[in-house]
Amino acid sequence: MDSALYIVVIAFYMAILAVVGWLGKKKVRSISDWYVGGFKIGGIVMGVAFFATYFSAVLMIGFAGSASKWGMSATVIGMWHAVSAVIAFAVLAPRLSKAFKELNAMTFSEFLSLRYGSKILGYTSALIIAIFIIPYTVSAFIAMGSAISTIVGTPFWVGVLVAGAIIAVYVFSGGLFSATLAEFIQGIVMTIAVVAVWIFSYMLLGGFVQAHEAMAAIDIRSVTFPAFGTTTWSVIIGLTAVMGFGMLVQPQMVLRYATISSRMNIKRALLIATFGSLLFPLAAYSYGALSRPILASFGIDVMTLKDDLIVPLFVKSAFPAWLSVLFLAGIMCAATSTIDALIHMTAGTLTRDLVRPASKNISDKTQLRMTKIISLILSLGCCIIAIYPPGLIYQLTAYTWQVLASSFMGPLVMALFYKGANKYGALAGMVAGFASAQLWYFFLAPPITPIYPFFPGVASSLIVSYLVSRVLVLGQKQA
């Protein structure tokens, strides 16, 4: 009976997104409409779409599952997301929105290329995006596959393919219009789901105080912040930086806060995005930590389980059917809201920034058709990789965000706030940030040192971008 209900929910969800895709398709009359929504998307819709894209099943399943082992200290990571949302909309969005429109840029890489007058910079950034966004996309497919397979009782690969089919239904049709409209709906549903599970988790343990006492009884470290220099401390501090401030230069996020229609809509988006970016992760990390004593009452020790399977098992074991159904709906919304943004952005980058420059006289119609086909190929490819997952969800996500933040922080910040920034500084900063993050990841990352690659990577990107540009500016003045 429950399985039939889950199948009905999945089918209903796909039907809704089919309608969204049809509505989005009607609005796509040009290449600009598909890529950036014609710069006509409002603040309320984009505010919800922002945190729906920001947070996904990666957080609801992967990070929350890891939080069951880290304890309540994981909520520290979530508290900084709201700060990042304020920076994104109050500081970066006004400048980026103006610059995107003036340059008529339709992708992140095209913005960098036009701002600095460098095709090489555009090619390089597009290649980094095309290659390193894949692990993040795969992690979202894994999260959704894990949830569907555990809660519904299907094989893991079926859950992954269902996720791919859902994405294909509407991203292919309407581009950014369909994606943001869907994300608006998805953001509301997924927030209701995580808050309901959060509240119900405390109720199962008898209340706030009793819940924290139950966690402390199992392991006092569940309710205390980890000691300095420990592995858990490194993970919490590192993920706070990566998942918080690393978001600011993620290409799929930039397209959300750089394409809002007006300054008034930016202000509206700021309020909604900040509230959602505080509530959603706080709820998810909290129920993740609370799952440990609840599952212990069922004789299940989370320390013996793979992180990605803990939350689905928790929901299926501890909650009534109606809440499991709501959570499944939230998982589908959370996963697809992020995957659609990644597929849409990556397909656009591959077509517009890599294929188009190499082709002569490619029409907008041909470019649009090619972008849609590439979006389908990407969805299928990521599904196949996800069926044989190469690592834990939080590891794949953190790796992608570290690489992208380290590569793009310097070029993007200098493009907006330093008039003397030039293509040589931007390219040098991109290469330096990318190289230092990669080298640190493979040779000095925790547990070898307590420092995440994000820190040396972003620092290198910012410093090198500024210094190289500065030196060249001074040299030109002296000449």
Summarize the SSE layout with pairings:
Blueprint: H1 2-27, H2 31-36, H3 43-54, H4 57-70, H5 75-103, H6 108-116, H7 119-132, H8 134-152, H9 156-204, H10 208-218, H11 231-244, H12 251-257, H13 263-296, H14 307-318, H15 321-358, H16 364-387, H17 393-417, H18 423-443, H19 454-478
Helix pairs in contact: 1-9, 1-15, 3-9, 3-12, 3-13, 3-15, 4-8, 4-13, 4-14, 4-15, 5-11, 5-13, 6-7, 7-15, 7-17, 7-18, 8-9, 8-14, 8-15, 8-16, 8-17, 9-13, 9-15, 9-16, 10-13, 12-15, 13-14, 15-16, 17-18, 17-19, 18-19
Largest sheet: none
Global shape: globular
Q: Can you tell me the residue ranges where pLDDT is under 50 for at least 5 consecutive residues?
A: none
Q: Which architecture does the CATH hierarchy give at level 2?
A: Up-down Bundle
Span between N and C termini? 80 Å
Give the helix proportion (percent range): over 70%
